[in-house]
């Protein structure tokens, strides 16, 4: 089960070939997007292209299965935040939520961001240019 990070969703919207190649090569595996990643992606679309960006993002991401931030996902994110702060290596709050949703779901986060590798017990697939 692969959870798409914000940067992968943005690159998909921008038509980056590597994202389509990843999706095709993993077609037999469930794909989802944590709702915090969808939120960040849509914010970017609106900030850069206004209502047109919003409608394009809605249309182009309609195939993505959203996985919501639940109480259990929030608890995972809180654990992750505590672990990373204790180690002196925190990541951003939205990335912490994304990691919590994916870890709680037992999935793999698909991303360009290497900092997700600092999260214990989180499977990470690094793709694309970093």
Offer a quick outline of the entry.
The chain is an alpha/beta fold and 130 residues long.
Structure notes:
- The chain is of the alpha/beta class.
- The chain has a single domain, classed as 5'-nuclease (Rossmann fold), CATH 3.40.50.1010.
- It contains 5 helices and 5 strands; from the N terminus they run βααβαβααββ.
- It has helices at 6-13, 17-25, 35-60, 71-86, 93-105, and strands spanning 2-4, 31-34, 65-67, 108-111, 123-126.
- Strands 3-2-1-4-5 form a 5-stranded parallel β-sheet.
- Helix 1 (6-13) runs parallel beside helix 3 (35-60) and helix 4 packs across helix 5.
- The longest helix is centred in the middle third of the chain and has 26 residues, at 35-60.
- The protein is globular and about 40 Å long.
- The model has no long low-confidence stretch (mean pLDDT 96).
- This is Type II toxin-antitoxin system VapC family toxin.
- It comes from Salinadaptatus halalkaliphilus.
- Its cofactor is Mg(2+).
Number of domains: 1
Radius of gyration: 14 Å
**Could you spell the SSE succession in H and E letters?**
EHHEHEHHEE
Do you know the CATH architecture? 3-Layer(aba) Sandwich
CATH topology: Rossmann fold
Going by CATH, what is the homologous superfamily? 5'-nuclease
Our measurement of the CA-to-CA distance between the termini, rounded to an integer number of angstroms, reads 22 Å
Question: How much of the polypeptide forms β-strand, as a percent range?
Answer: 5-15%
Fraction of residues in H or I helices: 55-70%
How many helices? 5
Number of strands: 5
Q: How would a crystallographer describe the biggest sheet?
A: 5 strands, parallel
Low-confidence stretches: none
Describe the strand arrangement of the main beta sheet, using strand numbers: 3-2-1-4-5
State the name of the first-level CATH class.
Alpha Beta
Arithmetic mean pLDDT: 96
Shape: globular
- Class based on secondary structure composition and strand pairing: alpha/beta
GO molecular function, one term: nuclease activity
Cofactor: Mg(2+)
Protein name: Type II toxin-antitoxin system VapC family toxin
Family: Belongs to the PINc/VapC protein family.
């Amino acid at each position: 089960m692969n959870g798409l990070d914000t940067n992968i969703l943005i690159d998909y919207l921008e038509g980056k070939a590597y994202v389509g190649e990843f999706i095709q090569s993993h077609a037999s595996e469930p794909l989802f997007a944590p709702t915090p990643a969808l939120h960040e992606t849509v914010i970017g679309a609106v900030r850069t292209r206004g209502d047109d960006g919003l409608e394009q993002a809605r249309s182009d991401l309609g195939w993505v299965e959203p996985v919501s931030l639940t109480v259990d996902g929030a608890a995972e994110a809180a654990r992750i935040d505590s672990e990373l702060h204790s180690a002196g290596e925190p990541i951003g709050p939205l990335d912490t939520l994304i990691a919590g949703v994916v870890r709680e779901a037992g999935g793999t986060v698909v991303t360009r961001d290497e900092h997700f590798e600092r999260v214990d017990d989180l499977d990470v697939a690094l793709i694309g240019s970093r």
